[in-house]
Amino acid sequence: xxxxxxxxxxxDQALVRTGFRMILTxxxxxxxxxxxxxxxxxxxxxxxxxxxxxxxxxxxxLDGLEATRRILTGAPGExxxxxxxxxxxxxxxxxxxxxxxSGFLLKDVTPEHLSAxxxxxxxxxxxxxxxITRRLVERHARRDPETATLHRDLATLxxxxxxxLRLLAQGLSNAELAARLHLAETTVKTHVTRVLAKLRLRDxxxxxxxxxxxxxxTASDHRRSEAL
Length: 228
Prior knowledge:
This is Response regulator transcription factor. It holds the Pfam family GerE. By secondary structure, the chain is of the alpha/beta class. It has helices spanning 14-26, 38-48, 64-71, 91-99, 111-122, 130-140, 145-150, 159-169, 174-181, 185-198, 204-213, 219-227; strands at 6-10, 30-35, 52-56, 80-85, 103-106. A 5-stranded parallel beta sheet has the order 2-1-3-4-5, sandwiched between helices. The longest helix has 14 residues, at 185-198.
């Protein structure tokens, strides 16, 4: 028998938490705890060891951004975090993605999309809406010497892996990458896995953030690519 997915729902609105609990439970996903602020979310994660956390970005006492940072400290068995927001370009969402969140959802998400998102990130993939995420990163990414130092491992990537990272940053899927690079999709998956491993990145979201923060890709690069 398959073990149900275990989820913590963190939101300062009780009705939102109840609604998400009902949706997830109806789809066979186990909501093991609820939290009304960031501190409660951290405690709930420590207590229940969930697979996924649905984290509201704006909460009292401790917001979802700081709670995400504290949860994703590199400890073994850390959960995946999906950020919930009312605003698709909220600058705090970018901070959460940089901190290691696996993606974000708007609060008007459909029940089917909510359940699918939870299952997706649990598999190790990222919940990446390419156009929205790219615009978010373009708007808020900041490049400085400190960032370059943190990601000096870019030098360990092969020319092909750098090409893959550049295209990842444009929001291309594996199938689109394969078509652009004239490679088999299985080969592309191998390249993506190696890029993430060499740069010690959690998933594709962090790859997008890294590509922009290090200056490997810029907004003008993407506009030129779209024009081709």
